[in-house]
Structure formats: structure tokens, C-alpha cells
């Protein structure tokens, strides 16, 4: 019995495969020595299944199945007679006969069923069999090379020769067998949803050894059919005498700026598909609009063809990855589609066939995509300097000064979470995790100390910091650059707080409470301003409700302020880790605010958690505060300040709204779902709360019937 960890751990990869299965079950397959193989069921047990499931990011194994329950695999049988204890971190650490040493047949391939629950914060590597690297034909690199040198500085490059890198040399493709379908594939690879016809002038290049014939729905050139090497004439050109050229049509977000005004002159139709929860442009959980409500797609049979339809529909190229198992966060509302099967040529994923009868999917099976996007060169004009890792540092931008391009800093006046989010996205580093208005502990290059950008204000959705509002050539920065320059720290994951609207709707009631019992609440400004004149024996009418706030993200929600700076409130005898955690407002049907309240986070803790997830945070004994991934914090209706003071409110119809994390103190992967709205009717004696929903869960047309904020991202902008 030997352990093969050393050679395999260097390049280990597991996946679950097979037909008629959920994302959390399947035949166990191991990638080793550039080939996928299987595991024999001899001596396999629940301990080995536990190792497999945890390595794949699931909390635990539920069961395992011998005798190729999920179908017979192909290729080598990499493991036989595995003897795991269940404590190993990877399957490669378990003793076995040795890698590739087996007397089994594929009729003995083992399968496992893992828990639906994910390991909080687990960093997933996509294991669906659609990587470019796993395709049969390897292509070193492909590029579109502009025909004219003057066009090579254009961003993005949309047309030119198609060149393939082979044996370290760039070679052009002869147009033998080349069709518009092949051009569609090339454009999709480079982030463009469409293509135009284009013809080249004669040229004497070095040609690639293959003719290319694509059907048009492939995600990459290397999955197209290759023809025989074209015979060349004595002058070095291919029989038709022309190298292949393409002209690609960019999506709306990447189109040249002169078209911007034209596009904005018309109101765009409500999209039927969107991406949510992604860290960078072109990735996210797939959501579709049906019957006026946004919902998700179940990952059963989710593949690269269907993902590519989504990407093209949204103005990107083909899909790089089709992600399963809620990898980019869990959505809300219904699961609209399951077992989606696209041909690759549909205009929208809503046109694809799907199984209308398939039920039982949860949001832990939400499908997601990563799309090819055009190379815009944004990363070349921004950098982080002086940090302890590539994910943090002082923000430095490349700017033109006196006719030269120089690196300089960004003024930190007003620098906040939205600006930091744009920086991390532009650099491809994920989400912002911390924002810094002083960076003296990150000494960058002295030559880059001067401020070259000030007055930066971002909405948080921009692709580049230069797209945000800023002062332009007339800088204004009283603090100066250097040690006072803006800085960020980025992270691949982020929390995502979502309020449960049903809990609010079900727990709302009114209470008339005497003023002498509201002394502490008055000190914390939880009553309306007129309460200052109210006698002690008078009553205040309070609209009370519970809020249950879930963390649906991939990292814990922690208060920005450290424990040493929490504020002690002597009256309530507790600490506030966030001075304003939620805002409560009542607005009229024309959007005028008539009553308000707020709630400090005197206790951010795990009230309850999903099955299999342990609580990490509790407020007792000055404990650590936060909300764990997969847990929720409940603010009960009967605690102080969990109300709106409606003593002076006139009877009528109103909109009630709650905003979580309103000042963006803590970065999240999605702020659009931090707001919740309800319709509220008050007749002077009773109150009704109904039609409660989270921001972004309804169509634009329906949402416009609810006045107030459309989403959290305009609260303070």
C-alpha cells in the first residue's frame, strides 16, 4: 500500500461526472497526467467519500455507490483499494495500490452523493468538462492581428488577421473551408457577440497546418473540426491566395464612444436575462425574468452551449465556464428553468428547451457563467503599489502630464467602498474587502507620490476608474498624495446580505408605548423629533416588525470597526459595532418621506444557521460580531429601535422600505438586494403590510410602482 500524494498533489483535480445526476453527486473522476480517469470501488468506503466531498467543497458525504451507478467512465482507473481514514485533505493523501495500479474494470467505477451544503468560503475550481485545456485539440494561443499598423492601437481590436501560435511561431490560417460560422467562433473567443463579413488583401505569411471548419456554436477554436493541411503554391500562399480575416461586432458596453449618445436617445427594453453576484465584468449567477419576477436557472445539465447563449445575449462573447452549484452566490425568488438544453444559436436562453416538469431544485444549485470579454487594456492603466500581496496596496493610475504618461496617486478625499470596488474589478482581483484613506504603511515609488486624480465618485458598476466622475485636469486635493493617497485591499469573495421579506410581512404590528419606557430609545434618536416635547405620561405609536438578515455570500459579514473602537451605550448596556446598520422609512406614493427610523448594530451575531453550518459569532461576553456565510441575524420586533415612530402619521397608503448597510461600511458582492419594500396601509387604528419584496426581484415596470429607492446604490450618491 503506497501513498501517491507527492506526484498527484502537485496537479490534483477532482470532479463528479455521469448522467442523470444532481450537481452534488456522480462518478468520481480524477485528473492526472493530462487525463481524466476513475476510481475503483474496491475497499472504497464512506470515509473516502467524505474526503472526496470535502475536497470538492461540500460539507460532508451522504453516501457512496459501487458498480458504476452513474455510468461507466473512460480512460485510466487511477485509484484502486483506497484506504482513507476520512481525515485526509485530499484523495491523493489516502493510501492505495499506487497511481494507475489497478485490476478493475469501468463497471466498478465508484460514485458519491455529497451534502447540498457548501463549505463556507471555499474557493472553487470549475470541474465541469468544458475547459479549453481539456478539449482534444490543443491550441497554444490565438489572436486577432490588425491589418494596418495604425489600427493596432485601437481598443478593442475588432478586426484583422486570425493568427494561431504553433511551435512558438504565429501563423495565419488559409481560408480553405473557412466560413462565417468559423468567424463567429473566433469573435466569440475574443468577447464579441457578432461578426461581419470581411475580405483580406493578398499576403505571404506562414500558414498554420490546418484548415478550420466550425459549426458556429463552439466556444473555442480548438473544439472546431480541422481539415487536412492545405497544399501551398510555389509563391507561399494557400490555393485561394488569401489568409483568413475577421471583423467582429462588439457588444453595447464595449462599442465605440460615438455611438453612446445614439443609444441613450432611446429607452432600452427590459432585458430578460441578467448576471448577479460576479466579481468582474462578464461573470455572475444567471437570472431570468418570467411573469414580472426575476428567478434563477437550476444547474442540472447546465453546459457550455447554454452558457454561451447567455453570454452572447448579454453582449459578451462565448462562455469560458459554465458554473454549477451556486458557485457565484445563491439567488432569491423562484427557480424558473431546469435542465436547460440550448443548441447554441438561440437569441436568448429563454428560447432554449427546458424541462417544465422538473422540480426540486434549490438555490444551492443556481447556474452561473464566466464569459469572454473584449481586451480593453484597463489593467495597464492602474496598479496597486507597496502592499504585502498583489491584492492590496496604494492605488496608482497612469495619467498624461505635460505630454508624458506618468504614474501617480489618487486623492483619498471621499474615497469609499464604491471606488474601491471599481479598482478591484478593473484589476481582476475580485471584490474590495477594505478601503483606506491613508497609505503611509505602503510606501510606493516616490516618483508616483503626486496626485494625478481627484474628486473620484463611482456608482460601483464602472469597468474602469477613469469611467467614474472625477475632476479631470483641474485637481483639488487638500490632503495631498503620498502617505495620504487612496488604497484598497481586494478579495476573491465577499458577503451578501439579503433581508427576508416574508418575516417582515408576517411580524408587523402597532404598539402604543408610554414615553417613560422609551428613555433609552430617545437617547439613541430612535423616535421622531416631536418626541422631545412629549410629556413622560404620553404615548408614542410604534410600527414594529422583525428583520431576519441572511448572508448569502461567500465570506463572513464583519463590521468595519475593530472591537477596540466599538461604542459603548451605557443606557442599553451594549456595544455598537456599526452606528447605522439599517434604515427604516415610510414614504408616500409620490416618494415623500413621512416617517423614519434606524437601527445600530448593537449585536451582529448568528441567530440561526443552515443545517451543517456552525455559528461563529455571538455578542455575549464582548464576543466577536459578524454573520457567517449560510447564517442569519434576527432582530426581533420586541427590542428597542426595531420600529418606526408613526405617532403623527396620517391614515393612508404608504411604501415601507428597509435598507441594510446603507453607508456601504462593509463591502458586499451585491448591493442591489440590500433594500426591501412593502406596501403599507394605515387607517389610524390598524396597519396592513403586504407585497413585500427585495430590491431587484421584480421587473422594472413593476418596481416603478413602488416609490422610494430603486436600490441601495443610490442612497448616498
TrEMBL record:
Start and end residues of each SRCR domain: 14-115, 144-249, 273-372, 382-491
Coiled-coil features, chain-numbered ranges: none
Any GO MF annotation of the entry: protein-lysine 6-oxidase activity
PROSITE patterns registered for this protein in UniProt: LYSYL_OXIDASE (PS00926), SRCR_1 (PS00420), SRCR_2 (PS50287)
Cofactor needs: Cu cation
Record carries keyword Signal: yes
Listed Pfam families: Lysyl_oxidase (PF01186), SRCR (PF00530)
EC number: 1.4.3.13
InterPro entries noted in UniProt: LOX-like_protein, Lysyl_oxidase, Lysyl_oxidase_CS, SRCR, SRCR-like_dom_sf
Primary localisation category: nucleus
Compartments where located: Chromosome; Endoplasmic reticulum; Nucleus; Secreted, Extracellular space, Extracellular matrix, Basement membrane
GO cellular component: basement membrane; chromosome; endoplasmic reticulum; extracellular space; membrane; nucleus
Catalysed transformations (reactions): L-lysyl-[protein] + O2 + H2O = (S)-2-amino-6-oxohexanoyl-[protein] + H2O2 + NH4(+)
Ion transport listed as a keyword: no
Post-translational modification: The lysine tyrosylquinone cross-link (LTQ) is generated by condensation of the epsilon-amino group of a lysine with a topaquinone produced by oxidation of tyrosine.
UniProt function note: Mediates the post-translational oxidative deamination of lysine residues on target proteins leading to the formation of deaminated lysine (allysine).
Protein name: Lysyl oxidase homolog
